[in-house]
Amino acid sequence: MSASVLFDAPGPKTVARHRVYSVVSVVALLALVAFAVWKLYDAGQLEYELWEPFVTPAYLEFILVDGLLETLKMAFFSVIFAVVFGLVFGVAKLSDRGWVRWPAWLVVEFFRAVPVLLLMVFTFFLLAIGGGPLTSFWCVVIALTLYNGSVLAEVFRAGINAVPQGQSEAAYAIGMRKSQVMTSVLLPQAVKIMLPAIISQMVVALKDTSLGYYIIAPGLTAVAKPIYLEFSNQVPTAIVITAIYVAVNLVLTWVATMVQKRLVGEKNPLELTPVGNLDGGRNV
């Protein structure tokens, strides 16, 4: 018999009530979508001329290559660098040495508090304008790395602290150094705790690449402007670009979830032994 020990199984009335809630929610959602479509039709936003660019091969290539590919590249570099940044500063915040712990705390708290858009603007003015060494592409990557890396630093710190204290005490008891305890005992176990938060931050980094539009960075939001300026189709363009972001985020979440299941495994309900099977099958 499999059952959850955290809550009781719902009864027939509760199941029926939940089904009614589900049906009402679906009907309400469909009604909302129908209302939105009707408003678009009434405003003339469903005319073929406004949607033609999104079925034209040349414009599709422009959106996918100059838009989506650049967005994915910015998100990829941002996530990789943010994980490294977060790991280094998250571990540094746990250091026993104050000259390591307090500067790491200051860096993490500062970049976690500054809005991403302002980080992009500051980075762009410092490193790109006036013949600076970097392009707007890398300014977006740096800003997203600093912000998401600071958030991940807290995730790593919390994940390491969530490992039972007995694990590290046992490692110290057999003579392991603190660096060995961190890399061989604490971090491997903390990964299981941190993976959901890391996956969520990957999605956040991908969405925040859209802010690069304000510093003339490439990406999906950048390719939208020449399209709607040429065809005067702001609403259809916004719908298509949003749909691409949603689709990519769903794919990213699915891939990350599959990786998590392979690395961590799925949690199965607790197997409870029927009372009649205790003590060699004799009833108790």
Structural commentary:
The chain has 284 residues and is mainly α. It has 2 domains: 12-42; 56-263, Orthogonal Bundle (MetI-like fold), CATH 1.10.3720.10. It is 73% helix and 0% strand. It is built from 10 helices and no strands. Helix 3 (57-92) runs antiparallel to helix 8, helix 4 (98-113) packs across helix 6 and helix 8 (178-208) packs antiparallel against helix 10.
Helix content: over 70%
Terminal CA distance reads 17 Å
User: In sequence order, what are the helices and strands, one letter per element?
Assistant: HHHHHHHHHH
Q: How large, in whole angstroms, is the Cα Rg?
A: 26 Å
CATH class of the largest domain: Mainly Alpha
Q: What's the structural domain tally?
A: 2
Query: Which superfamily, in CATH terms, is the homologous superfamily of the largest domain?
Result: MetI-like
CATH arch. level architecture of the largest domain: Orthogonal Bundle
Number of strands: 0
The biggest beta sheet reads: none
Number of helices: 10
Which segments are poorly predicted (pLDDT under 50) over 5 or more consecutive residues? 267-284
Mean pLDDT, as a whole number? 84
Secondary structure class reads mainly alpha
CATH topology of the largest domain: MetI-like fold
User: How much of the residues is beta strand, in percent?
Assistant: under 5%
List the helices and strands and how they pair.
Elements: H1 12-42, H2 48-51, H3 57-92, H4 98-113, H5 116-127, H6 136-162, H7 165-173, H8 178-208, H9 220-231, H10 234-263
Features:
284 residues; mainly alpha; MetI-like fold; 10 helices; 73% helix; 0% strand
